[in-house]
Design goal:
The structure is a homodimer.
Chain A: E1 12-16, H1 20-31, E2 36-40, H2 43-53, E3 57-61, H3 69-76, E4 84-88, H4 93-101, E5 106-109, H5 114-129, E6 145-148, E7 151-154, E8 159-162, E9 165-167, H6 171-181, E10 187-189, H7 190-197, H8 208-219, E11 230-233, E12 237-240
Parallel strand pairs in A: 1-2, 1-3, 3-4, 4-5
Antiparallel strand pairs in A: 6-7, 7-8, 8-9, 10-12, 11-12
Helix pairs in contact in A: 2-3, 6-8
Chain A binds a DNA duplex (30 and 30 nucleotides) through helix 6 and helix 8.
Amino acid sequence: MDGVEQTNESWRILIVEDDERLADLTREYLESNGLTVSLETHGGAAVERIRNEQPDLVVLDLMLPGEDGLSICRRVRPHYTGPIIMLTARTDDLDQVLGLEMGADDYIGKPVQPRVLLARIRAMLRRVETVPVASEGGNGEEPARLQFNDLIVDRAMREAWLSDDSIDLTSAEFDLLWLLASNAGRVLSREEIFTALRGIEYDGQDRSIDVRVSRIRPKIGDDPIHPRRIKTVRSKGYLFVKEA
Amino acid sequence: MDGVEQTNESWRILIVEDDERLADLTREYLESNGLTVSLETHGGAAVERIRNEQPDLVVLDLMLPGEDGLSICRRVRPHYTGPIIMLTARTDDLDQVLGLEMGADDYIGKPVQPRVLLARIRAMLRRVETVPVASEGGNGEEPARLQFNDLIVDRAMREAWLSDDSIDLTSAEFDLLWLLASNAGRVLSREEIFTALRGIEYDGQDRSIDVRVSRIRPKIGDDPIHPRRIKTVRSKGYLFVKEA
DNA sequence: GTGTGCTGTAACAGACACGTCACCGGGCAG
DNA sequence: CTGCCCGGTGACGTGTCTGTTACAGCACAC
């Protein structure tokens, strides 16, 4: 059960750090865990890049040659609302308070274990993902979590619960469950499901959706003969029922 | 899930901590800085209170008598989406990663300076505040649903109700019912019905439409001799009547 | 009344759609 | 490299649909 998956696209992280060797190692580790990382060693350029590229998250070293990290944070905040994680060798409490009040979202003392950094980045992205991205197409956004009686489906955590018990869903199973649940009350045809999940055309023969459904149903406590959640609509598709 | 309290109201913080003296001090400090704080010393009760009170933020001590903080976090997560800050004397990296992956948003090692805690709480609340309150915004959506007195036909769910009782229609039956109902008040010839439903030419002999109608009628409470909904127009076709 | 169509519908059987098992290939971690 | 897990494929069994057919009743014309 890994944490935040790259649901649609990989998250874009910008690391601002003058120690290139360290930065490279960090990038490698983060990228091997599904993040897209770019580096910036120079403070002044960082401000520009954050404004222009609008990364999903910024990791900002405080001790930079030239411009100070705090000042970068302050200058960038009016133009960037994403999360900023400050990284610093100084562990002074006052610095930390200052950094956080300056608009940082997290403040980690060096040295930091890569996995700890990753965990904190993920935690932050998870929190942030519930905020619909304003720069998107601007159509109706979907909520991050759905609840139907005792069944809860959480998109940010990619996890579901059935009366408080976590349901062990595979990635593909979760995707299908989410698709159905977020379209509750509407019959989804196999064509729709196919294009939404795989981006390819439905050939009219493929049974993989059916198999997935049959794998999901027992996990969410559904009886295939008398399903309460995922109803089969014969010769059309599947329907996630809204009401009990 | 009543989202985040908005701006001016004081934020409601719940501290789960068994050391009452420490907790009191912390509360005092936080309250003197404009937060509303309540305390909970017992782990089991904490789960209940978090679910019921839905505080804006939870500070959770990991080392509790009885239930472990991690387990509290896991149990509470399905019902609480607000931020959780974990507090612990153990500063092991692995614990930290575990805590974050368990759904915590921050993880602070003890001892923690009150003002650091305050700064982190504020940073977290600042981040959370931008989360829009569950936008229930449904406009525009065409319901694709027809109603004639006590008969309701819903295209999205491909289901129909007769005075609140779900009607058991097969796929082909539903298609025909929808076609007729969505053309209520107009006689549909067999030719039209055939091309609309099967996309093929009517050969002038086929009786399948008639059979379908005869199967639908009892289900929607129609008497074939004196039909109120689907009338036969002799040598023409069928008519779904608008008014009762 | 009688005849000629048209319609309602019971019964049937082939086709069809779906659930599910077993299998396999690929990916990823150890 | 090796084993496990995930996810798609093919096959099979089952239950349900749905068109066909046949026959009975009805409507209308004469």
